[in-house]
Batch of 3 targets.
Target 1
Amino acid sequence: MQQLKVCELFAGVGGFRLGLENTEHYKVVWSNQWEPSTKMQHASLVYEARFGAENHSNTNIETVETIEIPDHDILVGGFPCQDYSVATSLKNSKGLIGKKGVLWWSIHRILSEKKNKPKYLFLENVDRLLKSPSTQRGRDFAVMLRSLSDLGYAVEWRVINAAEYGMPQRRRRVFFLAYLKGSAIHSKLKNTPPADWILHDGTFCDSFPLEQTAQNLVSFELDKDLVALSNTFNNKKSLSPFLNAGVCIEGKVTTLKTTPSFDEKRTVLSDILEKDDIAPEYYIDEADLPKWEYLKGSKKEIRKTKAGFEYNYSEGSMVFPDALDQPSRTIITGEGGKSPSRFKHVVQTPKGLRRLLPIELERLNMFPDNHTKLDGISDAKRAFFMGNALVVGIVEKVGASLFRKITEIEKQVQS
């Protein structure tokens, strides 16, 4: 089978592209990256420096006409976690609209308007998606699954923590794959018992094996009316019905709780550290140490709001410095810069305590060394990119499994 053509949305600095093209089975034919809140488009500059400007769009995706996007086999992207509620448009009682600026609806629009819809989708989000918003837990994911069902896609999802499969960072994200009606893989999924697909036969379990916990399967139907679903889904219950693995076919959801099954070599924080030539500004100044210790430590104290209202504040302590014999904690966007922080990584070295370098943060996300290094891009900005990025190794493994699965099922159909 020839390479699959990829459209990469919300591309950031190209994590999806790296992972998929590393397998040699995929070729990105169009990409889009737009940062709404900044004049300088730093991530897009890095993307173009690494992959070239050809077929790369640095425009707000909401303003890009679907006709400008070339046909592709697979649409991929890590879209922002927002409020996905649905409303009926005033002009057309059948027209469904989400809030402007909610980028899930840009994906939905492209899929709706494409005459030749992509056969496959591969999307990523924070695992909070499965239980948001807090007033209707799971509603946002339900809206997504129902709208994908309406567009002809069957979906499988998995929450994957990279560190549980030997990768160097504890980063938990939900990934979902969708297969268009008419594709061989859609037909196979539809004719396989859901639990078998999740545990043995699906794409995710091929690259990230798992075991079922004692919990039983949960199955339910999603309301066909998207507005009603948005308004009423799970509005009386405290827990989301979506567990960490599942499938949705024609609006019927099957989900179960699983645990990872992995006993191979694991990469830990010490494995990715640079040993020599560390710039002095990365070492923690003795004078700042008490502030770091305070922020990382446990607290029980009375604090005041700006309005003068007093309240009790408490939080537990964090490991300080970070454990070198474990995978790292999750990188967040505020990782860069010298100022003391509860969430920045600090490691003990023979020369003293220091923060992590941009190249080390790239390694924690399994990017090539210095992928984000570019004139005019500060170290703090490079850290910000990695706080937003995904773990390339996960994309690579899922991409390889997906290609294998498509090839295998298509061969079975032809024979």
Note: Confidence is low (pLDDT under 50) at residues 89-96.
Target 2
Amino acid sequence: MSPRSPLKPHEIVERALELSTADGCVVIADEHSSANLRWARNALTTNGVTRGRTLTVIATVDGAEGTASGVVSRSAVTADELEPLVRAAEAAARGAGPAEDAQPLVTGVPVSAHFTEAPAETSSEVFAGFAPALGEAFARARSGGRELYGFAHHELTSTYLGTSTGLRLRHDQPGGTLEMNAKSPAASGGHERSAWAGRATADFADVDPAALDDELARRLGWAERRVELPAGRYETLLPPTAVADLLIYQIWSAAARDAAEGRTVFSRQGGGTRVGDTLARLPLSLRSDPREPGLEYAPFLVAHASGDTQSVFDNGLPVGATQWMREGRLEHLVTTRHSAGLTGLPVAPAAGNLILDGGGERSLEEMAAATERGLLLTCLWYIREVDPATLLLTGLTRDGVYLVEDGEVVGEVNNFRFNESPVDLLSRATEAGRTEQTLPREWSDYFTLAAMPALRVPDFNMSSVSQGV
């Protein structure tokens, strides 16, 4: 075959492995496609479809002092650019010192049956049922005096992973997000109102724009009355999206090695980790499972680079279900094969999804109806870490904080800055609602596969008033 002939993804992987002169080689070909819709003021504004390819070559070189690795990633790689890419990875490996996380490359994983098939692709057809329903929602909003803004995004990535040890693995990952804002112009003497709703979806077949518009209209109605409240600790209902954003940051901070070295909230005083400790009074269980219906992800590890919670040497390692917390008790921290050896903990690859269950059956609305006085949040944003030793986070509320009195929403209150640790928050939660799939608003660019319940926290720390909307 001519070096300038177009190559299929699996052929690119095979060719790169053939070109390798390193002691070990891992090749990852990611074929990306995406489709999107955007709208403003009850009308579509833009739409588009994109395609792309990213190739990552990982070379390993055995030396007298240990094994070194070199990683090079490039986009839109053609056949005649393949050899320079492989050589660049090999040069990076030979110029690097021994890799601390070096392990033998993974072996013995069965070949994916569809490894040689063409990549899966999304297109504007994914919106075939959604777009007309969105148009109907525009008409309803217009007649109700509301303006809808937002976007829908769908992507599909086919990942082909091959190694010099014989692995040939393939996974297709779909992902879709929908975010919608409704705005109501200020009436005479009043204030402009805004509300947000979001959904995560694999294919948009389960998204109902009319239901979202109903939800937004209800929240705009709540905001007709404005109540100013001071900073302080309030009984607060955290919706599933807010719980997801907090627990995603928690799992990102759950590296076993960092904990064993005394640097995180999961470090045990006096040495070691807090695995085995009870973190929550409620029977809360947090888990990840690549085969969870509707939240599937690759059942093998794909690592484009090494870091605190992943290692390029672990590429292709089988991934199963992991119970991070079981009925309030910490069961696992994130480990690579290397950090598992250092800490004496089991291998537990980084989470591709997160499911929290507390055994509750009530919806967020039912929890609000059982609230004497408290705050109902819409979502959180601008979340940042303050103290890694306690995992203290700060951030802002956004697009609607509502006051609940005697089971009824009586008005919208001002936004707040909060200061909370998700680990401490779990220990204080007094009720968990029904677990449901949700879209994390803050981290939706990085992590969308989540199912969470609403949580009731009796003393959520609203540290100061925010002027944000």
Note: The mean pLDDT is 95.
Target 3
Amino acid sequence: MNFKKIHHIAIICSDFAKSKDFYVNKLGFEIKQEIYREERDSYKLDLMLNGEYIIELFSFPDAPERPSYPEAQGLRHLAFEVDDLKASVEELNERGIITEEIRTDPYTHKQFTFFEDPDGLPLEIYER
């Protein structure tokens, strides 16, 4: 394999309007494209971070819930790199997003913390 980079991450949400507001207005992702697929009664929102396409946000009617806790099998969490963790935590908290206590990675000695999207998907911010 000659992978170059991760192209995108796909997320299926339970409430499209709520998740769109969270990722766009609270986390600051840019909208690249929004499509309503009538045949599937489904929205697809392409989101960019710093001009780079990164997340596909989908809505599907009656999508089943998925257990989401840190030690479950499957994707554990999505992590975003920040320059100033404490400032990022303050900004998230000001926007009504609850974060866990800041921790320090015992191997890299970098600080990090977790928060959740509207469907409980674990998200991490990790200081560079």
Note: Helices lie at 16-26, 85-94.
